[in-house]
Amino acid sequence: MSKKIAIIGSGFSGLSAAAFAAKAGYDVHVFEKHSQAGGRARQFSTDQRYTFDMGPSWYWMPDIMDGFFADFGYKTSDFYTLISLNPQFEMIFSEEKMEVPENMEELKTVFETIEKGAGLQLEKFMKSAKFKYEVGMKDFVNKPSYNWLEFASPTIARSALKLDLLSNFRTYVAQYFKDKKLRTLMEFPVIFLGASPKNIPAMYSLMNYGGYALGTHYPLGGFYQLVLAMKDVAEKQGAHFHFNKNVEKINVYNEKVNSLTINGENIEFDAIIASSDYHHTESLLDKDYRNYNEEYWESRTFAPSCLIYYLGINETIPNLKHHTLFFENDLDEHIDCIYGNKKWPEKPLFYACCPSKTDDNVAPKGKENLFLLMPLAIGISDDEETREKYLIEMLSRVEKLTGTSNLLLKIEYKRSYCVSDFVEDYNAYGGNAYGLANTLSQTAVLKPKLRNKKLVNLLYMGQLTVPGPGVPPSIISGKIAARELCKIKF
Fold this sequence. Notes:
Mean pLDDT: 96
Distance between the termini: 12 Å
Number of helices: 15
């Protein structure tokens, strides 16, 4: 009889682990507290016929998703249509704006127009970033990271200096570009890794390659198409999904996990893999079996939370791209509010996504689906009055860019989502939205461990462990966890 495995949560790491564990022959059961799969990547529709992706909207590193489907004999195109966005996005500065074209040669021309010689510098930067991407995403991130000896492979040893592990990202970017706008553009991808660019290893220039060089994409129907496709793959391998099932306790017998308490009922399992928030997962265990105490979590640096607004606008908004970054204010000032002073920013940066510019399915004809996101510190108060204040601020800047007016009065659907909602819906530590920061002191072996140190049949995965935050890393995390499951001697 095959071993019965429980997976807690159906975010991207849970979906990935379910597929790989089921393929390996285990009897896999995924328990999700919500009524649908996806975790932070859930989707909802309204009576006004708007459809909103609740979380991820940047489809970067497409080769990682392609690789997941290829592992099961499928292609991405078997499940959804992927659109390459052109421009990839637009970045708004105080005096001007910059489009990032789909084609790298065109992007080099944009750089050269802004700063003489910057086109060639971009080519050099991307050549190095491609190397980091190929080593990092195909070798480095696929380790379970129990100890540093795992990284003693010939490939990584030969590549150590070129990976720029000990350089910080800000200094690294400044070696290539002098213009502040270009530096901001190159620093943007690492903001959601959980720290200022001056505290992120330069190795993460691989994200510039995974985004700008490999392109920014959009699955027709929304990012949730990736969730549905991965769930379909997992079910085809034999995995079972159980919704509206809240895991209340992880039970231990004879120094092994032996059951879960789910909606008040004890159900026995041979092993458990948790894709739920790591800190929350540990709270389901008696203290003696936890890997980390509260002091440990308090000492960690977390990636941001955020304020999100899902808006249905009853007319089209001209001059607005699918993705727009509003960076008119100082980047460091906003970052300090997230990681330093931990307060609401006085001069915020924010991001707008308008998928109805690409997809007719997400809003009624002649109307817009508008998603606004502003990064925030974790653990701060987020009352409705404060949320509304920032909504007005963000909409006024959208109006300035697009030449529209009175957008607030043209809203026919509105829903906000913030720090307390991340805590309520995902048990997210401090209301974090993106997991644990990828600072040098929290990279690889220095992240929370994939295995429980005392219970051989309990594993963790997702954005608070290796490889780190983001959709592609979470998919990889699930694959690593399933691989480690196969090593357990039952």
